[in-house]
Amino acid sequence: MTNKKDPFQDQQALLSGRSVKSILDIGANIGDITAAYRSVFPEAVIYGFEPFPAAFDQYRRRFEGNRFVRPIQSAVGRQAGTATFYVNHNNVTNSCLPAAREARYWAESPSDIELLTSLQVPLMTVDDFCRQQGIAEIQILKMDVQGAELHVLEGASEKLNEGSILLVYTEILFVPLYERQAFFYEIARFLSQFGYTLFDVYNGTHGQSGNLKWADGLFLSPQVRASQINAERCKSNVGESSLSDGYNHPTRSTNHFGNAVRCGRKTSVSSSSGIALGAQAQKANRELWDHNLQARRPAITDDGFDMSGFVGHYYMWPEEYSLLSKYVDLTRGDYLEIGSMCGIIAMSFAMRYPERNFYCIDAFCPGHATIGGNKQAFLQNLHEHNLKNVTLIEEDSRTAVPKLEHHFDITLIDANHAYGYVLADALNSWPLLATGGFMAFHDYGCVEETTRAVEDFLSQTGARLVEAASGLAVVCKSRQSGPEEAQPDEMTEVCQQIVELERQCASLKCEKSEREALLRAIQGSAGWRLLNAWRRFRDRVAPPTTSRRKVYDLTIGALRDPRS
After folding, report:
1. Sequence-ordered alpha helix ranges (H) in 386-471
2. Quick one: which of 198, 159, 205, 118 has its CA closest to 26?
3. Taking the model in full, what pTM does it have?
4. 259 contacts 267 by C-beta, under 8 angstroms
5. Strands 472-476 and 464-469: what pairing?
6. Per-residue b/e over 481-497, b at no fewer than 16 CB within 10 Å?
7. Cα–Cα distances in Å, from 368 out to 413, 430, 497?
8. Given 3.40.830.10, 3.40.50.720, 3.40.50.150, 3.40.228.10, which CATH number is that of 237-481?
9. Stretch 51-69: mean pLDDT, rounded?
10. pLDDT tier at 135, thresholds 50, 70, 90
11. How far is CA 98 from CA 25, 49, 146, 215, 511, in A?
């Protein structure tokens, strides 16, 4: 559920004390958002990008003579050049992407998204534009580009990597409106690679059945987020979480305030990308750590938790399991679990994703701050659910992980909680984690040796803490995570080639869609209908294979070429 807060007042508060000089309004239409920003940030220069000629003319006339508004008639995307722009019945649905077939079910009116025509428009990137204009920092990047938001962000990768875009305010889609559109979770995952986090969601539009169709999301850069955490720590009261959508809803914890609780420090967590602290914010993160306080998460009893359909117990609080589940949903590749106990957690995910592989490492013996796993329960669960995509490796994790040759999208470290084990498990499995993948540590902030090992791991690798809930901390392996990624290895090069091929494939699909749209436009034109009507009339008067048709064809041929 979205709130009724004013997104512009929130942006003003988040940037208080900072000089707001540059705002990019991408998809400015006729300028309503530009006008709102003018009232909140009167000294900022607003660059308004709008490719649709009719809307751009209104925008230009509206702010004519205003030296703080710079109209630019162009689309913005992942690369410079030209783009096909699809003009629909309602121009607020215009996009560089064609409408999806399902769009008529979700649009406010089925006619809103009907195609009228298409045209070629200039295309530029945020990074190129900033270089041309000499813009060092963008305080606010606003996007309303109807499904093409990820293209814009990809063209702003340099600025995002520098952390020099402070706020990203963008439309987010939850239902299919355009072909190849970016859904909310794709935008959140892409931004999380650069340490950006969701602050709040505004202006939600719901369908008749109550489901959220689209809204506006506000993402914070690492430095803005670090400043916010620092300010919140100075307050005696703790506010509620920005957003709750079912990912972090505890069902049993006795001390949950809608926030991640780590070592006595409550840190606001959003449900999409959580609390992310990039490289720029890691120092601030360490300064916020209070080693004199103990974790406030209650200890899990020996009985643990039960899950329907499985024998045995698992030892993870509901909000922790929910957070881990979210990152399993956000990834597509294989899953590695170091410390599986009865296998309940991994197998619950394996049932959800039968096409993915799940590797479980457990020596089934007790360790520091952890009880031994139950091999009999593990095998019984495996047999009863007939999970062919789950592999058990019964071995000490310090010797088992280095033998693995697979790459994983997500890894859970929850075995022996001794400092040496946790650090070894993390360092050994880090090279196996795909770029953009996630590593989760259990009992971070709750077990001192685990906490110390994770902090040393972050320091050694430059990895980034993305999100925390109770005692579960999630780390992201970004493109800049460590020295081992400074020079691309053979696997990285292959992955880059695959990405390039996928982009070429997407380009061909886009070209195919454009041609199909052109064909549909031709077939729906009055001239095409008239031609088809004439052909039907001709077939009735002079049916094929008849002498009349032969005379007709000869006559038409003579008219086309008098020399014959």
Report:
1. 397-400, 419-429, 448-461
2. 159
3. 0.47
4. yes
5. antiparallel
6. beeebeeeeeeeeeeee
7. 14, 22, 44
8. 3.40.50.150
9. 95
10. very high
11. 22, 20, 10, 20, 11
- 351 CB-side CA count, 13 A: 14
Whats the size of the chain, residue-wise?
564
- Residue 1 to residue 211: CA distance in whole angstroms: 9
Q: What is the average pLDDT across 135-141?
A: 96
Q: At what angle do helices 184-192 and 318-330 cross, to 10 degrees?
A: 100
Determine the angle formed by the axes of helices 419-429 and 448-461, rounding to 10 degrees: 30
d(CA 452, CA 545): 88
Q: Furthest-apart CA pair in the chain: how many Å?
A: 102
| 496, 460 Cβ separation under 8 angstroms | no
160, burial (CB in 10 Å: exposed 0-12, middle 13-18, buried 19+): buried
Q: What is the pLDDT of residue 508?
A: 77
Report the CATH architecture of 7-220.
Answer: 3-Layer(aba) Sandwich (3.40)
Both tokens of residue 141? 């990047």
* Chain centre to alpha carbon of residue 26: 19
Tokens of 510: 């886009």
Query: Coil, helix or strand for 75?
Result: strand
d(CA 272, CA 120): 35
DSSP structure string for 218-286 = EEE-HHHHHHHHHHHHTSSS-PPPS--SSSS--SS-SS--SEEEETTEEEE--TTT---B-GGGHHHHH
- Distance CA(167)–CA(163), nearest Å, equals 10
pLDDT per position as a tens digit, 382-412: 999 999 999 999 999 999 999 998 899 999 9
Q: Report yes or no: 253 and 318 within 8 Å, Cβ to Cβ.
A: yes
Which residue type occupies 558? A
What are 273-290's pLDDT values in tens digits? 333 333 333 333 333 333
Domain with CATH 3.40.50.150 in the chain: 7-220, 237-481
